[in-house]
Amino acid sequence: FFFQFLFSITFMTANICCVLSEKKRLHLRFDDLIEHGKRFGLNFIHVPIDQLDSLKGEEQFDVVLHKVTGVMARAQRKEKEAMEQQQSFLTFLDGLSAHCKVVDSYESALSLLDRSAIADKLRGWELVYTSSETEEIGADVSSEAEMCSEGNNKNNRNSQCQHKHTWKAKTPPSTLFNTKDEFVSALSGGDVLSPLILKSVEAHGSRRAHEMCIVVNNQCLLDEDVAVLNAFHFPAIAQQFVLHNAVLVKVFVIGDELSVSYRPSISNRIVEEHTRGKDNTVIFFDSHDVSKANSHSVLNGDEPLSDCVNFDLPEDLIKEICSYIGKTFDITLFGLDIVVDNEDNTLYVVDINYFPGYKEMEHFHSILCKYILQSLTQTIDCNKNNSTTKVNK
Fold this sequence. Notes:
Helices cover 36% and strands 25% of the residues. It has helices spanning 2-8, 22-27, 30-39, 69-76, 80-94, 106-110, 115-122, 143-147, 180-188, 223-231, 268-276, 287-290, 305-308, 315-329, 364-392; strands at residues 14-20, 42-46, 63-67, 101-103, 126-137, 159-170, 174-177, 196-200, 211-215, 236-240, 247-254, 257-264, 282-286, 333-340, 347-354. A 6-stranded mixed β-sheet has the order 5-6-15-14-11-12, with helices on both faces.
């Protein structure tokens, strides 16, 4: 509680302005956040984006938290009301005092709206991580096991064998298509190979961000497949589909803190059956129906989730991935969707979400409060350093 102590001797209470939609306010269990904030000397204030103009300037905020990606996405589609709300938000940010900390910056949140831009920024990235695992070897070990335990006392009934495991992390290959005809032409010509997953470039802000298609065979498209594609929203990215044993790894990040959980996903068997059979080669789905904690979609298959998680991800590996993503996009509040290739255990980052719901992060409210305190003390230190520099000059 160092940051809490340091802040308490500097300020009595910090005002935290939270520019959130009503839906996001409910997802964050905002009333609980208010109560947690009181213990840390933080006063959380919810301000809907359409009420920012009513602030007269007398309010002094120390931190601004925001999730207005829906408005930002609609503004990019030139919707008048959203464009006005976005401008109101930008005007509000411009009017903040110099000491106020915005978490995260508007530009950082904006960088996560476009899946194509995200893919371009991460193209070519690959993380290689080697972990060491220790296995207990009993008295009846084989000669091969004994060989990997040089220096052990063979008179000892139990010895240890060190195994090294190399993990890789990257993003799947992807291609941007602006129209359905452009995509179908590339598919028919073999310029993109199935199986692949088709996603709207919009990563946030509308239902279409969650509407996706799996294309399991590019040799022929049935009339029903073309009808599905006609209804799909382009521009879109075609991302290599990775067989991942029906497990989606969800990572939630707040500063240096993270939480990992597992959710149901697309079953290998479903994709393989469609590939071999004469069924539709384009499978449409909504990710909300397939990858929620309690999902029971036909695409999930029949296997219990606990039976599908056949890997143990090193915590330091996940931290390195999150550190790279955070620095690349200059973000501190985000979530990652990761799948693990069931052939070689390569991790693929398939989506990045700005300021997710954190429902599965234990002690979320306390972690967020501590992170805000940390941000405030860093701002105080920065301001002190700037003042000292001016005096020295």
